[in-house]
Amino acid sequence: QVQLVESGGGLVQAGGSLRLSCVASGSIFSINVMGWYRQAPGKQRELVAAITAGGSTNYADSVKGRFTISRDNTKKTVYLQMNSLKPEDTAVYYCKADVTVVARSTYNFWGQGTQVTVSS
After folding, report:
1. Residue 101: its pLDDT value, please?
2. Would you list the DSSP string of 53-74?
3. Using H for helix, E for strand and C for coil, what is the string for the chain?
C-alpha cells in the first residue's frame, strides 16, 4: 500500500557526517508528520527528529545542534543530515511517516531501517 525506503547509512568516523534519505511511494493522498527514529542494540527505539508537512521540527536533546531534518513534499522524501557524529549515534535508523492514503484513512508506516555505525 505504502512503502518507505531509506538510504544513506554506513560506517563513518567520529566527527564525520552522513545524510539519510527516505522516499515514500504507493497509494498516498498526503503525508503528515515524517520522522526518524533509531534503535541501538539492547535499547528501545527512540525518536531522533520529526517534521510536519508545514516544516515544523522537533529533535531529541541528544542530537540538537548536530542533526537537521528536512523534507521535500513534491518528492515525498524526508532527509536527516547528521553532523559531528558520535559513537553513541550508532544504531539502526528508521523512517516513519504518518500517511493519509487515497481511501482517506490515516496510518503510520515504517521503513526497513538503515544501519549507521560511528567508529571512535
Report:
1. 92
2. TT--EEE-GGGTTTEEEEEETT
3. CEEEEEECCEEEECCCCEEEEEEEEECEEEEEEEEEEEECCCCCCEEEEEECCCCCEEECHHHCCCEEEEEECCCCEEEEEECCCCHHHCEEEEEEEEEEECCCCEEEEECCCEEEEEEC
Identify whether the C-beta of residue 78 lies closer than 8 Å to the C-beta of residue 36: yes
Q: Give the β-pairing of 28-39 and 46-51.
A: antiparallel
Segments in the chain below pLDDT 50: none
pLDDT, residue 103, reads 87
Q: What is the pLDDT of residue 102?
A: 87
